[in-house]
Amino acid sequence: MGIGIGTPRYQVVLGSASPARLSVLRQAGVDPRVLVSDIDEDAVLESLVGAPPDDVVSRLAMAKADSVVAALLTERTADAAARPDTVVLTCDSMLLFRGRLTGKPHTPEAAIAQWHKVRGHSAQLLTGHHLAVLRGLEVTASATATRSTTVSFAPVTDAEIEAYVATGEPLEVAGGFTLDGLGGWFVDSVDGDPSSVLGIGLPTVRDLLRRVGLSVTDLWAAPA
């Protein structure tokens, strides 16, 4: 639910197709434009082999931001009137378990194998965040951060795993689980920021805004 009915000082662009990230922002009073990046995530990951896990998710978030900013600059070059001050937000999440990062399973077989590994254990959900401020045709400021949240998974049965995977929900989400959907039944606890597990950490975004000289209130709709 939005906070005001006027116009915020900054347009917010969310570079993600994730319904969970969009919902988190909307519930926090920000109604962003969605502009999905077109990067080849697998190619970026290949270029980051051997990099620290925190760097992997932050670099992916940065690559997404570069793609979104490029699309916005193309729009602005063609239309001089379409140049509001803009905050671009991009994120990337991956699950770190026993030193190995995993993203979206994509296939039922991979999702089942993932759940067999993590059930009854804890893992770290890493979410890289990148924020860029676009004024006119120039990026005037940017900041990046990664947030780690510990997720404890329930000791689910083989039958429960197969039933969950059969719904299709875990196939296209980081780590093969959701907190705000059916997967929430199989998460025992979260140690850290729950919004980060949903894909975009509000405390992290607030800190990034401060680093570039803005406040979260700049993104809220102003009272009419």
Descriptors for this entry?
elongated; 7 helices; seven-stranded mixed sheet; 224 residues
Description:
The protein has helices at 19-27, 41-47, 53-78, 108-118, 158-166, 194-197, 202-211, and strands at 11-14, 33-34, 86-97, 100-102, 122-135, 138-153, 187-191. The chain is built from seven helices and seven strands. Strands 1, 2, 3, 4, 5, 6 and 7 form a seven-stranded mixed sheet that branches. The protein is of the alpha/beta class and 224 residues long.
Distance between the termini: 16 Å
How many strands, which pairing sense, and closed or not: the largest β-sheet?
Answer: 7 strands, mixed
Structural class: alpha/beta
- The count of strands amounts to 7
Order of helices and strands: EHEHHEEHEEHEHH
Query: Which regions have little confidence, pLDDT < 50, spanning 5+ residues?
Result: none
Radius of gyration: 18 Å
Shape annotation: elongated
Helix content: 25-40%
The average pLDDT score comes to: 92
Beta fraction: 25-35%
The number of helical elements comes to: 7
Task: Describe the protein's topology.
Blueprint lengths: L10 E4 L4 H9 L5 E2 L6 H7 L5 H26 L7 E12 L2 E3 L5 H11 L3 E14 L2 E16 L4 H9 L20 E5 L2 H4 L4 H10 L13
Parallel strand pairs: 1-2, 1-3
Antiparallel strand pairs: 3-4, 3-5, 5-6, 6-7
Helix pairs in contact: 4-5
Quick description:
The chain has seven helices and seven strands; from the N terminus they run E-H-E-H-H-E-E-H-E-E-H-E-H-H. It has helices at 19-27, 41-47, 53-78, 108-118, 158-166, 194-197, 202-211; strands at residues 11-14, 33-34, 86-97, 100-102, 122-135, 138-153, 187-191.
